[in-house]
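Repro:
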Amino acid sequence: EQLNHQRDTTVQPCYTTIKDDEKNFSISYLKNKSKQARNPVSRWSIGSGSINEFAFSPDHVLLAVVSQDGFLRI
């Protein structure tokens, strides 16, 4: 029996977005219609400019981000 796997096929990700327009922050979660286990992938949009630095807290619960707009976000 041979498995047919199309590894060169491009599949566009589909994200669900949570937005806070007042603070210019959003988190997008990858939609998964199947009930199979998956790797939870998300895309974060923080601020309007590029990120200069980021660091995780020692307990890996918090993320501090300094962006081009001059703000430190935790």
